[in-house]
Amino acid sequence: MGVLSRKPVQSPYFVPRFILILGFFSLAILLLFEVDNFVSQTKTIAGHNLKPTPWHPFPLKTFSEESKYALASKIFQCSYLTCGGSTADNLPHKNWSLSADQAGTCPEFFRWIHHDLEPWSQSRISLNHLMEAKKHAALRVVIIGGKLYVDLYYACTQSRAMFTLWGLLQLLRRYPGMVPDVDMMFECMDKPKLNKTLHYMPVPLFRYCTTPNHYDIPFPDWSFWGWPEINIGPWNEEFQSIKQGSRARSWSNKWPLAYWKGNPNVVSPIRVELLQCNHSRQWRAQILRQDWDAEAKGGFEQSKLSSQCNYRYKIYAEGYAWSVSLKYILACGSLPLIITPEYEDFFSRGLFPKENYWPIPPSNLCRSIRSAVDWGNAHLTEAEAIGSRAQEFMESLSMDRVYDYMYHLIVEYSKLLDFTPVRPSSADEVCVDSLLCFAEDKQREFLGRSTAFPSSDPPCRLQPPNKDLIKVRSKRRGKSSRTLKF
């Protein structure tokens, strides 16, 4: 009698091998899809997945991560694993009640804060105002309880967004617990957009410059915390370096010429015309092109700002719009020759012709430059005094005052909001650690050098609004330029 064969008894949990393989393969595909989806859709303050502003296109930034997995890991870590529950780095809140009355008065140009916000003094600022501003903004900044939240719409060129947000984070560190809840729209390109004649409703948009004909609200630019792409350090360092460099030659031994070095290829007719003035004998000027690509390869040895103060006269010419070079030119102690500007930044409203700069009309440019140089060389004492006052003005614009301006501007703006700021669902928290996490090595170095600490003194006292005084000062600036005689 034969032995009957018996089939092995299968466990009710038995899964055929091919199903396991299929399941593993499906999970792998799903994981690949999710990683690709995460990497291609998550926007970051470093510029990932952000298109340039349509009103001012520029080349997209490239990133050095070796793979999508490395990029996904970095984005996930920096976005979700760094901030935790910190509020202004858990810094203790300062009680200024005893010392606030002893705070000094803010510089006079701080009065322009009231002027810049005057369009909303009656209507106040509603969510409708903010949504209209969103159409022209690159990012939205919301501060709630000392935490910073950012909603990204477009990329900013180079590291402007990162360093602007760093400045706001340092403000929260400098005055912990004092910055009010606020909701602001920011644009990070140069030229103001909100012309008062073209917008039926005042639109509140923060940017780095404005004009009398625009609603754009001027805010301290990113370079106060450094500009790593062209090796310009934080303002407190750069000013001291420039001031020291200005002492290398006495006034009588400085080159008796007007000097300008910059990039004319920025859609700037005035800079293109300025190139025609490059003749030391005919026009008393030395005009040089700045090639930043070549400078980067050479370690920026030929573009140190501190080495450009050996001339008695420094020319300021606007670029595509306003230029950050203004503060470095004024810091030199040379006589600033400012070609009549169209744009204003937050501090330039404190400048007056023949007091801390010499105005140059754009008509007959080369001849005007020569006339200014000839006057200065014939009046050495007066020319040196104007240059010294320009340097003193910039020395008074310390980072303490920059933070005070930011503080008062945000406080006064927040008073105009007719709604309670809330975190937008699409906004991410940005803290010191998350921003440093996204920063490249050189950026991280510059950011570290501009770190702020809790202030031992309260902010300066902001003067009350005074429309008549603003009008008088505006007329004084314009009148001095029109009546200028050599």
TrEMBL record:
This is Glycosyl transferase CAP10 domain-containing protein. Residues 178-420 form the Glycosyl transferase CAP10 domain. Keywords: Membrane, Transferase, Transmembrane, Transmembrane helix. The lineage of its organism: Eukaryota, Viridiplantae, Streptophyta, Embryophyta, Tracheophyta. It holds the Pfam family Glyco_transf_90. Residues 450-486 are annotated as: Disordered. PANTHER family: KDEL LYS-ASP-GLU-LEU CONTAINING - RELATED, PROTEIN O-GLUCOSYLTRANSFERASE 1. It comes from the Eukaryota. The chain crosses the membrane at residues 12-33. One of its GO terms (molecular function) is transferase activity. The keyword Transferase applies. Residues 472-486 have a biased composition (Basic residues).
